[in-house]
Structures are given as structure tokens and as C-alpha cells.
Automatic annotation (TrEMBL):
Domain ER-bound oxygenase mpaB/mpaB'/Rubber oxygenase catalytic: start-end pairs: 16-248
Protein name: ER-bound oxygenase mpaB/mpaB'/Rubber oxygenase catalytic domain-containing protein
InterPro entries membership: MPAB/Lcp_cat_dom
Provenance organism: Streptomyces microflavus (Streptomyces lipmanii)
GO molecular function: oxidoreductase activity
Coiled-coil blocks: none
Amino acid sequence: MNDADPGLFGPRSVTWQMHGDPMMWIAGIRALYLQALHPRAVRGVTQNSDFRRDAWGRLLRTASFVGTITYGTTAAAEQAGARVRKIHRTLKATDPATGETYGIDEPALLLWVHCAEVDSYLQVQRRSGFPLTDAQADRYVDEHRAGARLVGLDPAQVPATAAALAAYFERVRPELALGPEAADVDDFLRNPPVHPLLRPARALVWRRVAALAYQSLPPYAHALYGRPAPPPATVDRRLRATGAVLRAIPDRLRWQLPPGHILKAMARLGPGSRPAAYRLRREAAILDGPGRAQR
């Protein structure tokens, strides 16, 4: 029996299986689109970093943080959270309309960022065909209260079910708006600066990926950005088609990309810790009883 540290979530969690899926990258871009619609939250990013110059670095650091808290040891996850909290404690933002200065570690702002991420991961994965029952979706939301604690939130104040997450968005919608910072994030995501040699790839790959992430936003986000989206059924078909293509890439090839969190976790915990969607299907079939297997 392998008694190595499984980390915050462990191989039996929904998070462990889902975060190994390649559609997480599209979900991450959707999260950026959604997060930018909270004026107070997005100012914390644009006023404390050169977003356009370091956007790629920021995206990779966010991905590394998610990978660390998902697949790293408990100590590594706690250290990653401590670093984030330390940085956030030192940063302020200013409302240009009122002159108010506020800390970007306000619980309401941290909660918005957290919920936008969890909702984006959940929505993109489910709509792209990743197998999750309603109960597993609730488990996923609940599991991520552990991640919320790492960035400084009280888990008791964080949504624990998909229904509670939806109710949170209903409450916060009056605070959302397309401010100049959100417009800047939107412009960057649609047309990010790249080396001239990479411009063909930007046109062929990135713009399609970013467009699909945008299309998967909820209706109120489309209304704020002022651009229509295809019907939800059309977006779902595109998400499933993209998911099928990306999931056809061998896992080992995808997981070789730095920083290699999943391969490190498998080396620590053994081959049985390999993230796989079929584990969730099998779990759902067992819980549903033998009747499901016969249908």
C-alpha cells in the first residue's frame, strides 16, 4: 500500500480526475473573461501588474498554482497558498471614480475570483462531454472550498454545491459591468501580442480557442460584453468537438509539458493515481446500481 502524501484532494477526488483533462485550458480562459467583469476585482490585476506585457506569465503562474494545489503534496499546496496570501496582503487598488483605495484581498473580491474559476471549470468540462453526475458536480464545488481556504477565504462562506454557486452569481450580478479594464482584458484575449513568427498560430489556434471560451460564458456576460454568442446548443457541439480532439492527444504527451505536476504525482503515488474520466463513470455506475449497467 502506498502511503505517500496524496495532497489536498487525492486520487479519489473529482478534482483529481477533472483537472487532468485538456479542456481545463479553455475553462481557464473563460474564467478570465468572467473575472474581468467585476470592476473592483479586475482593477486589482491591471493596477498591480503590466497585464499586457506579462499576460502569458500570469496565465502560466495561475495554471501552476492550480496544478500544485491539485497534484502536489499537502506541504507544497500550503506553501503555494501562503505565497499567494502574502502577495495579496501587500497590494492595493484605487477606484478612479471615487478615489477609494482598497486591498485586493477583500473577501468579496477573493470570493468572486474563486467562484468564477470553479464555475468556468465546471461548465466547460460538463458541456464538453466530461462525465460528471450532478452529485459529482456538487462534490467538485465542495472540494474547492479547500482551495478557497488557501487564498484566504473562510470555507464556511464559500458555495459548497452547484446550486449555491448559481445562487451566488445571481446575488453578485448587479455589481458586474464592462469597465475599461474589462475591455482591455477582452481586447488582449482576442488579439494577444505574440512574436511575428507566431502570428499564424495565433490566427489559426488561439483566436478559435479564445472565441470558444467566450462563447461558453453565461448570457449576462455576453450582454455586458456586447457581443452575441451562438445558441447554447451550438456552443455545446463545438465544446464537445474540441474536447474530442484534445482528448485524443495521448495523456503522456500532454503531461510532459512543464511543470509536470501530474507525472510527479503519479511518480509519488503510483500508476493507480493516474487521472482518468472513466473512474468517475465507474463510480457513478456503482452508485446507481446494476440496473444502470443493463441499460
